[in-house]
Specification:
This protein is mainly alpha-helical and 297 residues long. The protein has a domain at 12-218. The chain contains 11 helices and 2 strands, in the order ααααββααααααα. It has helices spanning 3-32, 40-58, 61-85, 90-113, 138-156, 158-168, 170-175, 180-206, 218-228, 233-255, 262-280, and strands at 124-126, 134-136. Helix 1 packs across helix 9, helix 2 (40-58) runs parallel beside helix 4 (90-113) and helix 5 packs across helix 6 (158-168). The protein is globular, with a radius of gyration of 19 Å.
Length: 297
Amino acid sequence: MHAGVVVSLVCASIAVAAPLLLAALGEIVVERSGVINVGIEGMMLVGAFAAFAAAHAAGSALAGAVAGCASGALLAALFALMAVRYRADQVVTGTALNILALGLTGVVTPSLSSLQHTPSFHPYSLRVPGGQPVTADALSILALILVPVIGIFLSKTRTGLRLRSAGEYPNAAADAGANVPRLATGAILFGGGMAGLAGACLSIAYTVGVAQGLTNGRGFIALAVVIVGRWSPAGALLASLLFGAASALQAWGQAIDLRLPYQFLLALPYLVTIAALVFRASRNLSPASLGVPYEAE
């Protein structure tokens, strides 16, 4: 394979992986606190639409990213109220938020999809010594930077260690002085903000525009990334790049008229997701209290 084609595939893989990685990093923090948020899809969708609208109104892609992050956190606040404050079923609550987000964005799709000249994050050219330049936009670069930052936060800081203990043994963490509901709420808000930022990555970086169902299941793939990556930021990076490469190969295969059924190429990223889950999820390394509502003893 020609070097230029390889570089193009790498760039496409990074672009596709970025929103998955952003959402997965936020969900890792959430699940480490003992909460599972299946509402990522809805938060990404709301973030994408809010980012596109704000970027157009303010004439700034940065303003769009901030709006996307804030809208995702706002929807996450509703999730936290139900799941933490009232101890509602976390899966049912997240599913309800996905339906709510799909309905809300469906209402505004016709008016937003007609907007033109919306600012976006343009890709930067990163020079690799002895090779061709690799292009990546600002949000993709931010996602890569956040991998070690969140890893250090979870493993080296006092708050991160308390958050992890809350996800494993919440009552023991409370006995040691941790405020378990506050930790969970903070983690949920952070995860929602990251999901909203992932949505912004879709609407003003990866593509420029919005459409009904823009996320196309990426929120659920981000959940799979967390599992395949074993609740580790570094693992999430590798899993995101795997799924990104599968999607890039899908587009590349169609572009060069690869002699395979196009239905197979369209299904390739999801087949890779299922295969990776089967291969990597044989051992359960999730937090011990994941999905269990906290009740003080």
